[in-house]
Every structure is written in C-alpha cells, then in structure tokens.
Please model this.
Amino acid sequence: HEAEYLANRQRWARKHSEQYQHKERHYNHHYNMVTRNRNDNRSEQYKFYRSKQWVDLRQATLNRDHYLCQYCKAYGKLTPNSKTVDHIVPIAYDSTIRADQGNLATICRECHRLKTQWEQYYYGT
Model:
C-alpha cells in the first residue's frame, strides 16, 4: 500500500506543479505587459530602471549613503544593509529629475512601503 500511496502522491505533485508553473507564467506575463507597461509613461520609467545610467546612479547613491536608510537616520535610527534607492520626488510625478542624484536616497523596505502609500495618497501615483 505504501508504494501505491507514494506513486499517487508523486503523480499528484507533478500535475499540480505544472498547473502552478502555468499560472505563474500567466501572472508574470500579465504583470509585465499590462500592469507595469500600462501606458507609454510607465513603459519609459521601466526602461530607465533597466538602464546603465540607473545602475550607476543607484550604486553611487548606496555608496554615498553607506547603505543606511536615510529616512530612519532622520529619526536617529540606523538601519544598515538597506539596498533600495528611492526617488524622493517620484518620477511618475516629475520625470525631469529622474537622474538627479540629489533626488535619490537609500531606503529600507519598511520606510519604502510607507513612503509609497503616502505618495499614492499625496501625488496620486
């Protein structure tokens, strides 16, 4: 009985693994083609984040800020190993300053989540 049980379990796992992979591919395709690139402006933003210019700006900002969240630091808390670089004024609001390092700051995950919520409220982005 045990061998039969294991064989059935393996068949079930293979079947559901294929279904999961198909759903994941569909989700990623939908996200990339519809959500991320929903208009020309968003498409341009996405291209910028994949450019060498952004990679260099991001690394320069991380080095300048010593990988410390600048938002936490403003409140006297040191949050090391922050690896996200944020536009202080979002490029969805003003794309002319997207490459201005003065508009960039290192930010931790929690601060980024809170700031994104605030931006959606304040800027409507």
User: Anything to note?
Assistant: The beta strands are 84-87, 104-107. The two ends are 59 Å apart (CA to CA). Helices lie at 2-36, 40-49, 52-65, 70-74, 109-122. Residues 2-36 form the longest helix (35 residues).
